[in-house]
What we know:
Blueprint: E1 4-5, H1 10-14, E2 25-29, E3 35-40, E4 46-51, E5 57-62, E6 66-70, E7 73-78, E8 85-89, E9 94-98, E10 104-106, E11 115-120, E12 126-132, E13 141-147, E14 151-154, E15 163-168, E16 175-179, E17 182-187, E18 191-194, E19 205-210, E20 216-221, E21 231-236, E22 240-245, E23 251-257, E24 264-269, E25 277-283, E26 287-290, H2 291-297, E27 306-313, E28 319-325, E29 331-337, H3 398-407, H4 432-441
Antiparallel strand pairs: 1-2, 2-29, 3-4, 4-5, 5-6, 7-8, 8-9, 9-10, 11-12, 12-13, 13-14, 15-16, 16-17, 17-18, 19-20, 20-21, 21-22, 23-24, 24-25, 25-26, 27-28, 28-29
Amino acid sequence: xxxxxxxxxxxxxxxxxxxxxxxxxxxxxxxxxxxxxxxxxxxxxxxxxxxxxxxxxxxxxxxxxxxxxxxxxxxxxxxxxxxxxxxxxxxxxxxxxxxxxxxxxxxxxxxxxxxxxxxxxxxxxxxxxxxxxxxxxxxxxxxxxxxxxxxxxxxxxxxxxxxxxxxxxxxxxxxxxxxxxxxxxxxxxxxxxxxxxxxxxxxxxxxxxxxxxxxxxxxxxxxxxxxxxxxxxxxxxxxxxxxxxxxxxxxxxxxxxxxxxxxxxxxxxxxxxxxxxxxxxxxxxxxxxxxxxxxxxxxxxxxxxxxxxxxxxxxxxxxxxxxxxxxxxxxxxxxxxxxxxxxxxxxxxxxxxxxxxxxxxxxxxxxxxxxxxxxxxxxxxxxxxxxxxxxxxxxxxxxxxxxxxxxxxxxxxxxxxxxxxxxxxxxxxxxxxxxxxxxxxxxxxxxxxxxxxxxxxxx
Length: 459
């Protein structure tokens, strides 16, 4: 097995330690007998999917380390930090969890029923999916929620048909899916809450994913009750249901969403019943666009590839994973990184929020010296919003703690060069408590952590 990087893009993908600031790029995974990618970690550095003959095996790809086999099953989704994979093992198919490719943990009791884990919370502690229900003649699929404490617990009473849980928020509290051909949101307080269809459309809806913050649900709905068309949609608490678009004479399905709900990905079909599929991405500025067009307009060479499906999105919405095929019809997984041109820029510094190391304070130069500790490497937080760095050198060190203390004396014996960066304790003020936090964060091991609570780091 090998993974192949399009040569003209090697600088953008291999040398950048921060994928959020990487150049637009395209990576295909040339695995034996084909592959398809389904899940991606929050930072885009870990991808899971299937490979092998008829996609009967599982893999995990890690940036800088390549591909490893997943023993005994096929992962579908991955936790935010990339440490926990969920999917199914077998045959017979059984919902499973992996902390490493070789450590398989069955989730459902061994009762002979098929089960599939579809999504997981940010830390891997809550898993959702579906399994066969019993008795088989009385019902169809059964949506479930799994935790270490409770095991597999049905979301609905036995006898409910077509219940599939397909997405879960980062904290595990919000679950989405489809129940009796209607999309739903579920939480412990409210139970099952049906989601509305498109105005004037058919009653059929499907929810496939939810954003990490729980604000946005994406899926599919019928724009016309008399036609077979399906439109990609998203639901938000503020705006209700919104059609993301549909290609002429075809359909589209939204299957993945960024952490804040601002970027959606999925697949579209130009002709109903046809076999030509296209991966798309959507954002509020550009609307629905074919992923291939977005990459090629940014100068990315796809090497003759056709992108069929976008099935996973990183937290910032820039890393898209899915599957495509080459000119010979060989299907393989891909990992694409898009640019930020034309996206929202809250601080007006010319750098879109999604690529900005300080999205709430203008820093057109994107200076990023280091992080916490003397000699620390860049930590994706820009100098202009590095809370605790009151001496303005780009790193938080003991010098900053001393400067805070001396500046707060009466009379002061020092002046903070960047006083707006003082608040690291989260109380909204600059006090001696902040100096204590910085001092404790410098201990080995640290006994406190620096919060990004200062004004320049927040809207």
